[in-house]
Backbone:
């Protein structure tokens, strides 16, 4: 972590500790207080169906996990259901289990979806920025996650969260903690942004090589153009080799959407069939083939729910939400079930690896149906026309691309691993500092003054695997309430 500066390597524990009386919290600095969250913050419920034109609107997907930065704040959005009103200085805490780490401090007044708790400091004993870091720390998130309830969409309850015992350092230390964590976070984000730019350049180089090969702009066997071309009749393909065919995808592959699985049927680790969600596509080790699986289901469960078991070598990709727009594709190493945010492709009359590459070239996001949540159906994909070379050329293209993109793939994997390690480091640092395991007072005092970057960074590649279309807004009070 030397690129971030030396300050984070010089931190030491506090000189004296005491038992917090909270199992998950352990020991805390001797001079820190322990208080119930509801004694320092109130849960404000002020629902509305209206807002001013200049007010921001924040949904769960607008907040980056583990950083609290607002990726996007809509100003032109229509909504029919009730939303919650917040003001600058409040803390928004996502209460759905997949979104518990979505904690942010909005810079101005506005409205948010009902699945945020709107927390407001009661008095001067705690500052909102410190509380934001604490609520985002992994020990707190893990404790709250264990309390969630509900089968379809587990959520946290203010009764439990408000009753939690939290650390309450003296105000000067809260300020020092915020100053230090914000400083390190800025450096981590800058480093991540540089790595993301490198990845983007490498991906663009890869795509140029792949596009030339799968559209026949070069004969990979000779490194030169083919002797004769014809018009494909497809805009993105342009001219293709004269002897290649143009076929709809349904002529070479079969497509089927995944199935809905109740939460109670998920998460079992040792059944015979892997069960995959969108988030599994982003796990380390799953960059091309799905190798790492946490959740499985039984064959009996799959049959009872009418879930299709996709064979090995099938291609899977997101079909709904922001994940659809990322155009990610993965291959199944084992026969698997997939959830209803994914679609599977079983290749029948072509080389699987060649078709995997072709599918990577398709921008399925442009086929998305209009509406608040982008989505595609099986029929949208089946009719897409692609160029299909003879079988021997498909094999040659696959071999050529494996060699031609190997260096770029290795560099991309290395950069992604560095980003992953930085995020893990940030998560651990927030937990250690916000709960008093490390003393940052001296380090914070020696930090240079820096202005916050104005731009909003999109560090996270995907939304979480939960389908935002399934999110619900709880019916609470129509008038402003403060829950004790």
Residues:
């Amino acid at each position: 972590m030397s690129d971030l500066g030396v300050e984070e390597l010089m931190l030491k524990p506090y000189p004296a500790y005491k038992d917090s009386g909270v199992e998950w919290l352990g020991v805390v600095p001797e001079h820190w207080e322990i208080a119930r969250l509801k004694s320092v913050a109130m849960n404000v419920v002020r629902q509305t169906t209206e807002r001013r034109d200049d007010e921001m609107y924040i949904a769960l997907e607008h907040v980056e996990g583990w950083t609290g930065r607002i990726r996007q704040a809509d100003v032109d959005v229509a909504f029919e259901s009730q939303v919650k009103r917040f003001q600058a200085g409040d803390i928004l805490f996502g209460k759905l289990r997949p979104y518990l780490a979505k904690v942010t401090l909005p810079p101005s007044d506005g409205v948010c979806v009902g699945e945020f708790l709107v927390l407001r400091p009661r008095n001067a004993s705690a500052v909102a920025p410190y509380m934001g870091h604490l609520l985002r720390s992994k020990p707190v998130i893990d404790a709250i996650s264990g309390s969630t309830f509900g089968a379809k969409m587990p959520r946290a309850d203010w009764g439990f969260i408000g009753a939690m015992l939290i650390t309450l350092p003296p105000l000067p230390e809260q300020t020092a903690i915020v100053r230090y964590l914000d400083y390190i976070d800025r450096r981590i984000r800058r480093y991540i942004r540089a790595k993301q730019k490198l990845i983007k350049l490498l991906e663009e180089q890869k795509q140029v090589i792949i596009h030339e090969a799968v559209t026949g702009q070069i004969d990979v066997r000779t490194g030169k153009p083919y002797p004769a071309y014809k018009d494909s009749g497809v805009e993105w393909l342009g001219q293709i080799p004269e002897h290649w065919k143009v076929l709809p995808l349904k002529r070479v592959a079969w497509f089927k959407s995944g199935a809905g699985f109740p939460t109670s049927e998920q998460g079992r680790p040792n059944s015979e069939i892997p069960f995959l969600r969108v988030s599994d596509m982003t796990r380390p080790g799953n960059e091309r083939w799905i190798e790492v699986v946490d959740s499985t289901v039984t064959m009996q469960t799959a049959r009872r729910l009418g879930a299709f078991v996709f064979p090995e070598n099938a291609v899977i990709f997101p079909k709904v939400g922001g994940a659809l727009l990322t155009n990610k594709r993965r291959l199944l190493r084992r026969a698997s079930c997939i959830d209803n945010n994914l679609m599977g492709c079983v290749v029948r009359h072509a080389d699987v690896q060649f078709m995997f590459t072709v599918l990577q070239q398709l921008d399925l996001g442009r086929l998305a149906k209009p509406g608040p949540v982008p989505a595609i159906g099986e029929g949208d994909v089946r009719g897409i026309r692609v160029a299909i070379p003879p079988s021997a050329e498909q094999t040659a293209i696959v071999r050529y691309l494996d060699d031609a993109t190997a260096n770029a793939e290795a560099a991309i994997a290395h950069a992604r691993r560095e980003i992953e390690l930085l995020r893990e480091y940030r998560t651990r640092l927030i937990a250690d500092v916000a709960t008093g395991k490390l003393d940052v007072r001296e380090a914070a005092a020696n930090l240079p003054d820096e202005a916050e970057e104005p731009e909003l960074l999109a560090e996270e590649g995907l939304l979480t695997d939960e389908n935002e279309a399934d999110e619900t807004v709880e019916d609470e009070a129509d008038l402003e309430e403060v829950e004790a």
Q: What stands out?
A: Residues 254 and 311 are 12 Å apart (CA to CA). The longest helix spans residues 171-214.
